[in-house]
Amino acid sequence: MFLPRRVYGPELLLAFCEKTAGRGYRHFFYGAEQAPDVPERLAETLKNRFPGTIVAGTYSRPSRSLSLEQEEEIVSLISRAAPDVLW
């Protein structure tokens, strides 16, 4: 597949949300604890900017290493949310 230019992540996010708002796509926003509440703030911003955007969930991962059990809990949380897209 040939891409005519570099695909910049934030542009992809905005374009995808714009094209799919109101079409039932479920988004999950996963972030790091170094920037608290970023996934939650991004989700709110996108819901306001693109009405009809469905946020299946958000999670801010701790910056420390996680045990296997903790990683499995996060995977389970995301799986239960059943997102179509994980950002």
Description:
With 87 residues, this protein is α/β, with parallel strands linked by helices. 44% of the residues lie in helices and 20% in strands. The chain is built from three helices and three strands. The protein has a three-stranded parallel β-sheet with strand order 2-1-3, sandwiched between helices. The mean pLDDT is 92.
Which helices and strands, and how do they pair?
Blueprint: H1 9-20, E1 26-32, H2 38-49, E2 54-61, H3 68-81, E3 85-86
Parallel strand pairs: 1-2, 1-3
Query: Which stretches are low in confidence, meaning pLDDT under 50 for 5 or more residues running?
Result: none
The amount of helix comes to 40-55%
Rg over C-alpha atoms, rounded to the nearest angstrom: 14 Å
The spatial strand order of the largest sheet comes to: 2-1-3
Please sum up the structure shown:
It is built from 3 helices and 3 strands, in the order αβαβαβ. With 87 residues, the protein is an alpha/beta fold.
